[in-house]
Protein backbone atom coordinates (compact mmCIF):
# COMPACT_ATOMS: atom_id res chain seq x y z
CA UNK A 1 0.00 0.00 0.00
CA UNK A 2 1.26 3.51 -0.86
CA UNK A 3 1.64 6.35 1.57
CA UNK A 4 -1.50 8.25 2.64
CA UNK A 5 -1.91 11.13 0.22
CA UNK A 6 -2.80 14.64 1.43
CA UNK A 7 -3.62 17.20 -1.26
CA UNK A 8 -3.86 20.89 -0.29
CA UNK A 9 -5.47 23.21 -2.83
CA UNK A 10 -4.40 26.86 -2.60
CA UNK A 11 -1.29 28.50 -1.15
CA UNK A 12 -3.06 31.38 0.56
CA UNK A 13 -3.28 31.90 4.33
CA UNK A 14 -5.17 28.67 5.03
CA UNK A 15 -3.38 26.35 2.60
CA UNK A 16 0.14 27.55 3.31
CA UNK A 17 -0.37 27.34 7.05
CA UNK A 18 -1.69 23.76 6.71
CA UNK A 19 1.39 22.77 4.73
CA UNK A 20 3.68 24.56 7.15
CA UNK A 21 2.30 22.50 10.07
CA UNK A 22 2.47 19.26 8.07
CA UNK A 23 6.08 19.69 6.99
CA UNK A 24 7.12 20.60 10.49
CA UNK A 25 5.60 17.50 12.09
CA UNK A 26 5.53 14.67 9.56
CA UNK A 27 8.37 12.18 9.58
CA UNK A 28 10.11 10.97 6.45
CA UNK A 29 7.83 8.64 4.42
CA UNK A 30 4.86 9.16 6.75
CA UNK A 31 2.64 10.72 4.09
CA UNK A 32 2.74 12.14 0.59
CA UNK A 33 1.86 15.84 0.70
CA UNK A 34 0.99 17.78 -2.45
CA UNK A 35 0.33 21.52 -2.61
CA UNK A 36 -1.40 22.94 -5.71
CA UNK A 37 -1.45 26.65 -6.50
CA UNK A 38 -1.91 28.58 -9.72
CA UNK A 39 1.12 30.81 -9.16
CA UNK A 40 4.66 29.92 -8.07
CA UNK A 41 4.30 32.56 -5.37
CA UNK A 42 2.10 33.40 -2.39
CA UNK A 43 0.56 36.87 -2.16
CA UNK A 44 -0.67 38.46 1.05
CA UNK A 45 -4.29 39.17 0.11
CA UNK A 46 -4.71 41.42 3.16
CA UNK A 47 -2.26 43.91 1.65
CA UNK A 48 -3.46 43.97 -1.95
CA UNK A 49 -5.18 47.36 -1.51
CA UNK A 50 -1.74 48.98 -1.29
CA UNK A 51 -0.30 47.95 -4.69
CA UNK A 52 -3.81 48.51 -6.09
CA UNK A 53 -3.55 52.19 -5.11
CA UNK A 54 0.11 52.35 -6.09
CA UNK A 55 1.39 53.07 -2.57
CA UNK A 56 3.38 49.82 -2.33
CA UNK A 57 5.49 47.81 -4.75
CA UNK A 58 3.66 44.53 -5.59
CA UNK A 59 6.92 42.69 -4.82
CA UNK A 60 6.43 43.47 -1.14
CA UNK A 61 3.24 41.44 -0.84
CA UNK A 62 4.55 38.26 -2.45
CA UNK A 63 7.24 35.63 -1.97
CA UNK A 64 8.12 32.42 -3.86
CA UNK A 65 6.39 29.31 -2.51
CA UNK A 66 9.60 27.27 -2.69
CA UNK A 67 11.14 29.73 -0.25
CA UNK A 68 8.86 28.45 2.53
CA UNK A 69 7.93 24.93 1.42
CA UNK A 70 10.31 22.05 2.15
CA UNK A 71 10.44 20.28 -1.20
CA UNK A 72 11.85 17.14 0.46
CA UNK A 73 8.53 16.74 2.24
CA UNK A 74 6.02 18.53 0.01
CA UNK A 75 5.52 18.25 -3.76
CA UNK A 76 4.45 21.59 -5.19
CA UNK A 77 2.39 21.59 -8.38
CA UNK A 78 1.92 24.92 -10.12
CA UNK A 79 -1.36 24.55 -11.97
CA UNK A 80 -4.92 25.80 -12.00
CA UNK A 81 -7.56 23.64 -10.33
CA UNK A 82 -10.49 23.30 -12.74
CA UNK A 83 -12.68 21.00 -10.65
CA UNK A 84 -12.84 18.07 -8.26
CA UNK A 85 -15.02 15.07 -7.53
CA UNK A 86 -15.38 14.40 -3.79
CA UNK A 87 -17.01 11.00 -4.44
CA UNK A 88 -14.21 9.71 -6.66
CA UNK A 89 -11.61 11.61 -4.59
CA UNK A 90 -10.11 13.21 -7.68
CA UNK A 91 -8.89 16.74 -8.47
CA UNK A 92 -8.69 18.05 -12.03
CA UNK A 93 -5.93 20.41 -13.13
CA UNK A 94 -5.75 22.58 -16.24
CA UNK A 95 -2.39 21.35 -17.51
CA UNK A 96 -2.40 17.75 -16.25
CA UNK A 97 -3.63 14.91 -18.43
CA UNK A 98 -4.52 12.73 -15.42
CA UNK A 99 -6.63 13.46 -12.36
CA UNK A 100 -4.85 13.93 -9.06
CA UNK A 101 -6.16 11.41 -6.50
CA UNK A 102 -6.19 11.94 -2.74
CA UNK A 103 -6.96 10.34 0.60
CA UNK A 104 -7.41 13.71 2.35
CA UNK A 105 -8.28 16.94 0.53
CA UNK A 106 -7.91 20.43 2.03
CA UNK A 107 -9.84 22.94 -0.07
CA UNK A 108 -8.31 26.41 0.48
CA UNK A 109 -8.74 28.16 -2.87
CA UNK A 110 -10.06 31.44 -1.48
CA UNK A 111 -13.22 33.26 -2.51
CA UNK A 112 -14.93 34.63 -5.62
CA UNK A 113 -16.45 38.08 -6.07
CA UNK A 114 -20.01 38.57 -4.76
CA UNK A 115 -22.03 40.77 -7.12
CA UNK A 116 -25.35 40.54 -5.23
CA UNK A 117 -26.93 40.29 -8.68
CA UNK A 118 -25.75 43.79 -9.64
CA UNK A 119 -25.60 44.10 -13.42
CA UNK A 120 -22.28 44.75 -15.11
CA UNK A 121 -19.96 44.15 -12.13
CA UNK A 122 -17.92 41.33 -13.65
CA UNK A 123 -17.80 43.00 -17.07
CA UNK A 124 -17.10 46.62 -16.12
CA UNK A 125 -15.68 46.91 -12.60
CA UNK A 126 -12.09 46.36 -11.50
CA UNK A 127 -11.49 44.06 -8.55
CA UNK A 128 -8.90 43.65 -5.80
CA UNK A 129 -8.53 39.89 -6.19
CA UNK A 130 -4.91 38.92 -6.79
CA UNK A 131 -1.54 40.39 -7.71
CA UNK A 132 -2.33 40.67 -11.41
CA UNK A 133 -5.71 42.30 -10.85
CA UNK A 134 -4.19 45.00 -8.63
CA UNK A 135 -1.44 45.71 -11.16
CA UNK A 136 -4.25 46.35 -13.67
CA UNK A 137 -6.05 48.74 -11.29
CA UNK A 138 -2.93 50.81 -10.71
CA UNK A 139 -2.04 50.99 -14.41
CA UNK A 140 -5.64 51.73 -15.38
CA UNK A 141 -5.90 54.65 -12.96
CA UNK A 142 -2.64 56.19 -14.12
CA UNK A 143 -3.66 55.78 -17.76
CA UNK A 144 -6.93 57.66 -17.13
CA UNK A 145 -5.00 60.52 -15.49
CA UNK A 146 -2.63 60.68 -18.47
CA UNK A 147 -5.59 60.61 -20.90
CA UNK A 148 -7.23 63.49 -19.04
CA UNK A 149 -4.14 65.62 -19.26
CA UNK A 150 -3.49 64.69 -22.88
CA UNK A 151 -7.01 65.59 -24.10
CA UNK A 152 -8.46 68.96 -25.07
CA UNK A 153 -11.88 68.20 -23.57
CA UNK A 154 -10.67 67.40 -20.02
CA UNK A 155 -13.49 64.94 -19.34
CA UNK A 156 -14.20 64.85 -15.59
CA UNK A 157 -15.04 61.14 -15.64
CA UNK A 158 -11.42 60.30 -16.46
CA UNK A 159 -10.38 61.57 -13.03
CA UNK A 160 -13.41 60.28 -11.14
CA UNK A 161 -12.83 57.15 -9.06
CA UNK A 162 -15.74 55.17 -7.63
CA UNK A 163 -15.11 52.54 -4.97
CA UNK A 164 -18.13 50.29 -4.51
CA UNK A 165 -18.32 49.00 -0.94
CA UNK A 166 -17.30 50.59 2.37
CA UNK A 167 -16.50 47.34 4.16
CA UNK A 168 -13.04 46.37 5.30
CA UNK A 169 -11.29 46.15 1.93
CA UNK A 170 -13.16 49.13 0.45
CA UNK A 171 -12.19 51.42 3.33
CA UNK A 172 -8.58 50.21 3.34
CA UNK A 173 -8.34 50.87 -0.40
CA UNK A 174 -9.92 54.32 -0.10
CA UNK A 175 -7.43 55.11 2.68
CA UNK A 176 -4.54 54.26 0.37
CA UNK A 177 -6.03 56.40 -2.40
CA UNK A 178 -6.20 59.36 -0.02
CA UNK A 179 -2.41 58.99 0.32
CA UNK A 180 -1.74 58.38 -3.35
CA UNK A 181 -4.00 60.92 -5.06
CA UNK A 182 -2.07 64.09 -4.12
CA UNK A 183 1.08 62.48 -5.57
CA UNK A 184 -0.75 61.42 -8.71
CA UNK A 185 -2.17 64.91 -9.14
CA UNK A 186 1.32 66.41 -8.84
CA UNK A 187 2.75 63.85 -11.25
CA UNK A 188 0.10 64.50 -13.90
CA UNK A 189 -0.27 68.28 -13.21
CA UNK A 190 -3.93 67.99 -12.28
CA UNK A 191 -5.36 70.27 -9.55
CA UNK A 192 -6.48 68.12 -6.59
CA UNK A 193 -9.90 69.80 -6.40
CA UNK A 194 -10.74 68.57 -9.91
CA UNK A 195 -10.58 64.94 -8.86
CA UNK A 196 -13.49 63.02 -7.27
CA UNK A 197 -13.10 59.95 -5.06
CA UNK A 198 -16.50 58.52 -4.19
CA UNK A 199 -17.13 55.61 -1.84
CA UNK A 200 -20.57 54.05 -2.23
CA UNK A 201 -22.14 51.64 0.27
CA UNK A 202 -25.56 49.95 0.30
CA UNK A 203 -25.61 49.37 4.08
CA UNK A 204 -26.66 52.23 6.40
CA UNK A 205 -23.11 52.66 7.71
CA UNK A 206 -19.46 52.50 6.74
CA UNK A 207 -17.67 49.37 8.06
CA UNK A 208 -20.83 47.53 9.18
CA UNK A 209 -20.22 45.70 12.46
CA UNK A 210 -17.37 47.98 13.59
CA UNK A 211 -17.53 50.09 16.76
CA UNK A 212 -19.40 53.38 16.09
CA UNK A 213 -16.71 55.63 17.58
CA UNK A 214 -14.07 54.01 15.36
CA UNK A 215 -16.31 54.29 12.31
CA UNK A 216 -16.85 58.01 13.00
CA UNK A 217 -13.08 58.48 13.30
CA UNK A 218 -12.52 56.73 9.96
CA UNK A 219 -15.22 58.71 8.16
CA UNK A 220 -13.93 62.06 9.46
CA UNK A 221 -10.35 61.15 8.58
CA UNK A 222 -11.22 60.06 5.05
CA UNK A 223 -13.58 62.99 4.42
CA UNK A 224 -10.79 65.33 5.43
CA UNK A 225 -8.72 63.57 2.75
CA UNK A 226 -11.33 64.41 0.12
CA UNK A 227 -13.50 61.27 0.06
CA UNK A 228 -17.21 61.69 -0.75
CA UNK A 229 -19.35 59.03 0.92
CA UNK A 230 -22.70 57.84 -0.39
CA UNK A 231 -24.02 55.56 2.33
CA UNK A 232 -27.27 53.57 2.27
CA UNK A 233 -27.09 53.82 -1.52
CA UNK A 234 -27.04 50.55 -3.47
CA UNK A 235 -25.34 50.48 -6.85
CA UNK A 236 -27.89 49.20 -9.33
CA UNK A 237 -25.61 48.74 -12.31
CA UNK A 238 -21.98 49.15 -13.30
CA UNK A 239 -21.79 50.33 -16.89
CA UNK A 240 -18.94 51.07 -19.30
CA UNK A 241 -19.35 54.73 -18.32
CA UNK A 242 -19.57 54.45 -14.52
CA UNK A 243 -22.33 53.46 -12.09
CA UNK A 244 -26.10 53.86 -11.87
CA UNK A 245 -27.40 54.13 -8.32
CA UNK A 246 -30.75 52.91 -7.02
CA UNK A 247 -33.15 55.71 -7.84
CA UNK A 248 -31.51 56.35 -11.20
CA UNK A 249 -28.64 58.78 -10.44
CA UNK A 250 -25.71 58.14 -12.78
CA UNK A 251 -22.10 58.84 -11.81
CA UNK A 252 -19.72 58.86 -14.74
CA UNK A 253 -16.37 57.38 -13.76
CA UNK A 254 -13.61 55.79 -15.79
CA UNK A 255 -12.38 53.87 -12.74
CA UNK A 256 -14.86 51.75 -10.79
CA UNK A 257 -13.43 49.33 -8.23
CA UNK A 258 -15.83 46.78 -6.72
CA UNK A 259 -15.11 45.72 -3.12
CA UNK A 260 -18.66 44.88 -2.05
CA UNK A 261 -18.04 41.37 -0.80
CA UNK A 262 -17.00 37.82 -1.48
CA UNK A 263 -18.71 34.47 -1.82
CA UNK A 264 -17.33 30.94 -1.73
CA UNK A 265 -15.38 29.49 -4.63
CA UNK A 266 -17.65 28.29 -7.45
CA UNK A 267 -15.71 24.99 -7.74
CA UNK A 268 -17.45 23.78 -4.56
CA UNK A 269 -20.96 24.26 -5.99
CA UNK A 270 -19.87 22.78 -9.30
CA UNK A 271 -18.69 19.65 -7.44
CA UNK A 272 -22.16 19.33 -5.87
CA UNK A 273 -21.07 20.24 -2.32
CA UNK A 274 -23.85 21.93 -0.34
CA UNK A 275 -23.11 25.62 0.23
CA UNK A 276 -24.63 28.85 1.57
CA UNK A 277 -23.60 31.75 -0.69
CA UNK A 278 -20.90 29.46 -1.96
CA UNK A 279 -19.46 28.71 1.49
CA UNK A 280 -19.57 25.31 3.20
CA UNK A 281 -20.97 25.03 6.73
CA UNK A 282 -18.17 22.84 8.03
CA UNK A 283 -18.31 20.70 11.17
CA UNK A 284 -16.11 21.21 14.23
CA UNK A 285 -13.23 19.38 12.47
CA UNK A 286 -13.56 21.63 9.39
CA UNK A 287 -15.02 18.74 7.34
CA UNK A 288 -17.66 19.22 4.66
CA UNK A 289 -20.63 17.22 6.00
CA UNK A 290 -21.44 14.12 3.98
CA UNK A 291 -18.01 13.69 2.40
CA UNK A 292 -15.17 11.59 3.66
CA UNK A 293 -11.90 13.43 4.24
CA UNK A 294 -12.93 16.64 2.49
CA UNK A 295 -11.88 19.65 4.56
CA UNK A 296 -12.81 23.23 3.66
CA UNK A 297 -10.93 26.13 5.24
CA UNK A 298 -10.47 29.90 4.87
CA UNK A 299 -12.91 32.04 2.91
CA UNK A 300 -14.82 28.95 1.75
CA UNK A 301 -15.77 27.75 5.21
CA UNK A 302 -18.76 28.98 7.12
CA UNK A 303 -18.48 29.03 10.89
CA UNK A 304 -21.01 30.48 13.32
CA UNK A 305 -20.30 32.25 16.59
CA UNK A 306 -22.16 31.71 19.89
CA UNK A 307 -24.93 34.08 18.75
CA UNK A 308 -25.40 31.93 15.61
CA UNK A 309 -24.01 34.69 13.40
CA UNK A 310 -21.43 33.75 10.74
CA UNK A 311 -17.88 34.93 11.30
CA UNK A 312 -16.67 37.14 8.46
CA UNK A 313 -14.04 35.56 6.21
CA UNK A 314 -10.64 36.82 7.32
CA UNK A 315 -6.99 35.90 7.06
CA UNK A 316 -6.98 35.52 10.82
CA UNK A 317 -9.69 32.85 10.55
CA UNK A 318 -7.95 31.10 7.61
CA UNK A 319 -4.60 31.04 9.44
CA UNK A 320 -6.05 29.57 12.63
CA UNK A 321 -7.94 26.95 10.63
CA UNK A 322 -4.81 26.06 8.64
CA UNK A 323 -2.85 25.59 11.85
CA UNK A 324 -5.43 23.22 13.33
CA UNK A 325 -5.89 21.46 9.97
CA UNK A 326 -2.20 20.58 9.68
CA UNK A 327 -2.02 19.42 13.30
CA UNK A 328 -5.21 17.35 12.98
CA UNK A 329 -4.09 15.60 9.80
CA UNK A 330 -0.88 14.48 11.52
CA UNK A 331 -2.94 13.24 14.50
CA UNK A 332 -5.38 11.37 12.23
CA UNK A 333 -2.55 9.69 10.30
CA UNK A 334 -1.11 8.49 13.62
CA UNK A 335 -4.47 7.04 14.72
CA UNK A 336 -5.33 9.81 17.21
CA UNK A 337 -8.47 11.92 17.66
CA UNK A 338 -8.56 15.33 15.95
CA UNK A 339 -9.20 18.51 17.96
CA UNK A 340 -12.23 20.67 17.29
CA UNK A 341 -11.88 24.20 15.91
CA UNK A 342 -12.60 27.28 18.00
CA UNK A 343 -11.89 30.72 16.57
CA UNK A 344 -10.06 33.06 18.94
CA UNK A 345 -10.24 36.68 17.82
CA UNK A 346 -6.95 38.51 18.29
CA UNK A 347 -8.54 41.83 17.34
CA UNK A 348 -9.13 43.71 14.11
CA UNK A 349 -7.28 46.66 12.63
CA UNK A 350 -8.33 48.46 9.42
CA UNK A 351 -5.78 50.78 7.85
CA UNK A 352 -6.67 54.25 6.59
CA UNK A 353 -3.54 54.65 4.50
CA UNK A 354 0.08 54.79 5.62
CA UNK A 355 -0.29 57.02 8.63
CA UNK A 356 -3.55 56.04 10.28
CA UNK A 357 -5.80 53.12 11.18
CA UNK A 358 -8.59 52.09 13.51
CA UNK A 359 -8.83 48.91 15.50
CA UNK A 360 -10.04 46.85 18.42
CA UNK A 361 -7.46 44.80 20.30
CA UNK A 362 -9.32 42.84 22.95
CA UNK A 363 -11.79 45.46 24.20
CA UNK A 364 -9.35 48.33 23.67
CA UNK A 365 -9.90 50.81 20.86
CA UNK A 366 -6.88 52.15 19.01
CA UNK A 367 -6.74 54.89 16.37
CA UNK A 368 -4.26 56.97 14.40
CA UNK A 369 -0.54 56.36 14.02
CA UNK A 370 -0.37 53.83 16.86
CA UNK A 371 -3.02 51.73 15.17
CA UNK A 372 -1.20 51.94 11.85
CA UNK A 373 2.02 50.66 13.48
CA UNK A 374 -0.04 47.79 14.89
CA UNK A 375 -1.34 47.06 11.41
CA UNK A 376 2.23 46.85 10.03
CA UNK A 377 3.19 44.48 12.84
CA UNK A 378 0.20 42.24 12.06
CA UNK A 379 1.26 42.11 8.40
CA UNK A 380 4.85 41.26 9.37
CA UNK A 381 3.64 38.60 11.82
CA UNK A 382 2.23 36.59 8.92
CA UNK A 383 5.58 36.66 7.11
CA UNK A 384 7.27 35.61 10.34
CA UNK A 385 4.82 32.77 11.01
CA UNK A 386 5.25 31.28 7.56
CA UNK A 387 8.82 32.14 6.61
CA UNK A 388 10.58 32.78 9.92
CA UNK A 389 12.64 35.78 10.97
CA UNK A 390 14.57 36.03 7.69
CA UNK A 391 11.40 36.57 5.61
CA UNK A 392 9.97 39.03 8.14
CA UNK A 393 13.21 41.05 8.18
CA UNK A 394 13.38 41.05 4.39
CA UNK A 395 9.83 42.38 4.18
CA UNK A 396 10.40 44.92 6.95
CA UNK A 397 13.39 46.29 5.02
CA UNK A 398 11.34 46.63 1.84
C1 LIG B 1 -8.03 44.33 0.22
C2 LIG B 1 -8.24 43.29 1.26
C3 LIG B 1 -7.86 43.56 2.57
C4 LIG B 1 -8.05 42.58 3.56
N1 LIG B 1 -7.63 42.86 4.83
C5 LIG B 1 -7.74 41.91 5.79
C6 LIG B 1 -7.21 42.16 7.09
O1 LIG B 1 -6.69 43.23 7.39
N2 LIG B 1 -7.32 41.17 8.02
C7 LIG B 1 -7.87 39.94 7.72
O2 LIG B 1 -7.89 39.06 8.60
N3 LIG B 1 -8.40 39.68 6.50
C8 LIG B 1 -8.33 40.63 5.52
N4 LIG B 1 -8.81 40.37 4.25
C9 LIG B 1 -9.45 39.06 3.98
C10 LIG B 1 -8.38 37.97 3.74
O3 LIG B 1 -7.45 38.41 2.78
C11 LIG B 1 -9.00 36.65 3.31
O4 LIG B 1 -10.00 36.29 4.23
C12 LIG B 1 -7.92 35.55 3.24
O5 LIG B 1 -6.99 35.84 2.22
C13 LIG B 1 -8.53 34.16 3.00
O6 LIG B 1 -7.52 33.20 2.98
P1 LIG B 1 -7.68 31.88 2.11
O7 LIG B 1 -6.53 30.99 2.49
O8 LIG B 1 -9.05 31.33 2.24
O9 LIG B 1 -7.55 32.35 0.59
P2 LIG B 1 -6.46 33.23 -0.16
O10 LIG B 1 -5.52 33.86 0.80
O11 LIG B 1 -7.22 34.10 -1.08
O12 LIG B 1 -5.64 32.14 -1.00
C14 LIG B 1 -6.18 31.39 -2.04
C15 LIG B 1 -5.04 30.85 -2.90
O13 LIG B 1 -5.57 29.97 -3.87
C16 LIG B 1 -5.07 30.29 -5.17
N5 LIG B 1 -6.09 29.89 -6.15
C17 LIG B 1 -7.33 30.39 -6.30
N6 LIG B 1 -8.01 29.72 -7.25
C18 LIG B 1 -7.17 28.77 -7.73
C19 LIG B 1 -7.31 27.73 -8.69
N7 LIG B 1 -8.44 27.54 -9.37
N8 LIG B 1 -6.25 26.91 -8.89
C20 LIG B 1 -5.09 27.06 -8.20
N9 LIG B 1 -4.90 28.02 -7.27
C21 LIG B 1 -5.94 28.86 -7.02
C22 LIG B 1 -4.86 31.79 -5.10
O14 LIG B 1 -3.95 32.24 -6.10
C23 LIG B 1 -4.32 31.96 -3.68
O15 LIG B 1 -2.93 31.73 -3.64
C24 LIG B 1 -8.64 41.32 3.24
C25 LIG B 1 -9.02 41.05 1.92
C26 LIG B 1 -8.82 42.02 0.93
C27 LIG B 1 -9.21 41.71 -0.50
UniProtKB/TrEMBL annotation:
Q: Which UniProt keywords apply?
A: FAD, Flavoprotein, Oxidoreductase
* Family to which this protein belongs: Belongs to the NADH dehydrogenase family.
Domain (FAD/NAD(P)-binding) ranges: 5-322
Q: Which Gene3D superfamilies match?
A: 3.50.50.100
Q: What's the source species' lineage? A: Bacteria, Bacillati, Bacillota, Bacilli, Bacillales
List the cofactors: FAD
From what superkingdom does this record's organism come?
Answer: Bacteria
**Pfam families documented for this protein:** Pyr_redox_2
Report what the protein is called.
NAD(P)/FAD-dependent oxidoreductase
* Biological process according to GO: aerobic electron transport chain
Amino acid sequence: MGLPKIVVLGAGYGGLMTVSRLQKQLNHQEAEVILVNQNPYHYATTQLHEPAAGTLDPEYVRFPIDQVVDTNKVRFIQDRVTGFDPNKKEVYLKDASEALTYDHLVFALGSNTETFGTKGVLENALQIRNLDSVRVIREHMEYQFAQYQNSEEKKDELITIVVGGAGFSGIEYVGELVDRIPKLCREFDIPRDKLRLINIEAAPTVLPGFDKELVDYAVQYLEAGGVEFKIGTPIQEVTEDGVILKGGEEIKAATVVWTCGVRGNSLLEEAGVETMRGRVKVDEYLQAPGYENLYVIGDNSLIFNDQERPYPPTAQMATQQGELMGNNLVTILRGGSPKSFKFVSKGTVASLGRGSAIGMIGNKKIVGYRASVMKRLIDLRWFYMIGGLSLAIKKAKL
